[in-house]
Specification:
GO terms for molecular function: acetylglutamate kinase activity. Keywords: Amino-acid biosynthesis, Arginine biosynthesis, ATP-binding, Cytoplasm, Kinase, Nucleotide-binding, Transferase. There is one protein chain. This protein has 9 helices and 16 strands. With 298 residues, it is α/β, with parallel strands linked by helices. Strands 5-8-2-1-11-15-16-14 form an 8-stranded mixed β-sheet, sandwiched between helices. It has a two-stranded antiparallel sheet with strand order 3-4. The protein has a two-stranded antiparallel sheet with strand order 6-7. The chain is globular and about 60 Å long. The relative contact order is 0.15. The N terminus is likely disordered. The protein binds adenosine-5'-diphosphate and N-acetyl-L-glutamyl 5-phosphate. The site of N-acetyl-L-glutamyl 5-phosphate has 16 residues, from helix 3 and strand 4.
């Protein structure tokens, strides 16, 4: 039998059933804040995109049925591309970009300019107004220079405090906030913040119902399989064993920080899987990895 690819191939009663099955989740999550981290590894540039971004459509869907989505985006891939075009090498320590002054200029241009405006324009084109901002706007993300055992990371910021008033104003106005992860210290110096860390801190400060990290893998993987659930204790072991490394390290740290600060549920999903967000929020069998606080082994 041929695989069902489009909704047009599903019978009318099956279409209705899909909507009916979503009803309890729509009721449960009405009015709730969902922070979505859209990773740069899955954001296609305008030039590469052939269709409306399905992630943008999913987020609009969440809003239309009464949830309050807040988007925090990355853009590491685009930063590295521009740095290389300018003749600079990108350097990472434990998934964090070593950020000197000239690199910070590129980071701010790419995240606050190119990627942020691409996403805001995509929401607008799909009929849903959004407001783009960085963590500097409205004093959203207060940071201090991040200290790291692996050496001086330069202008990499660690979030010390989130001031979410600006987000509440944007949400109250009926807009989706779209946030680039740049923070500011008390002297006005801007810092490069890992987008997962920014999303975790924001989800905690908003006591979000869910923090969903969209990346380019189906979740936390071990021996080629996705772990459907991990606890804080599991994560410490997985990092110790080297199973979790690179860009996944700031991701899991952000998950635990969000849970500690008040976010209720945290998930890591594959943003390249079509409509992963809808499947996670509106169906019984969630997908990806659910991250839990606590020490018990999953
Ligand atoms: N145990 C693990 N499971 C899955 N991915 C892992 C793991 N350890 C390291 N990674 C790496 O983390 C990457 C995701 O982080 P990153 O590249 O920073 O993505 P994003 O841009 O979405 O934040 C994966 O593509 C993978 O290479
Ligand atoms: C300090 C640090 O590493 N900042 C990141 C910010 C962007 C980011 O996190 O983007 P992704 O989510 O796409 O990886 C960077 O410069 O790449």
């Amino acid at each position: 039998m041929e695989t069902l690819n489009t909704i047009a191939e599903i019978s009318p009663s099956e279409k209705a059933q899909v909507l009916i099955e979503a009803l309890p989740y729509i009721q449960k999550f009405a009015g709730k804040i969902v922070v979505i981290k859209y990773g740069g590894s899955t954001i296609q540039s305008d030039a590469d995109r052939q269709e409306i971004d399905p992630v943008i459509l999913d987020i609009i869907w969440l809003k239309q049925v009464g949830l309050q989505p807040v988007v925090v985006h990355g853009g590491g891939k685009a930063i590295t591309k521009l740095l290389n075009a300018l003749g600079h090498q990108a350097q990472f320590v434990d998934g964090l970009r070593v950020t000197d002054g000239p690199t910070m200029e590129v980071v701010e241009m790419v995240l606050g300019g190119q990627v942020n405006k691409q996403l805001v324009a995509a929401f607008g084109a799909a009929g849903c107004p959004s407001v783009g901002l960085t963590g500097v706007d409205g004093n959203l993300l207060h940071v201090q220079k991040k200290q790291h055992d692996g050496g001086d990371l330069g202008l990499v910021g660690e979030v010390t405090h989130v001031q979410p008033d600006v987000l509440h104003s944007i949400l109250a106005g009926g807009f989706i906030p779209v946030i680039a992860p740049i923070g500011v210290d008390e002297h006005g110096t801007r810092y490069n913040v890992n987008a997962d860390s920014a999303a975790g801190a924001i989800a905690g400060a908003l006591s979000a119902e869910k923090l969903i990290l969209l990346t380019d893998v189906p979740g936390i993987m071990k021996n080629g399989s996705v772990l459907s659930e991990v606890s804080a204790g599991d994560i410490a072991n997985l990092i110790g064993e080297g199973v979790i490394h690179g860009g996944m390290v700031p991701k899991v740290e952000a998950c635990l920080e969000a849970l500690r600060c008040g976010a209720r549920h945290v998930h890591i999903l594959n943003g390249n899987e079509r409509h992963a967000l809808l499947l996670e929020v509106f169906t019984k069998n969630g997908i990806g990895t659910l991250v839990r606080g606590g020490e018990q082994t999953a």
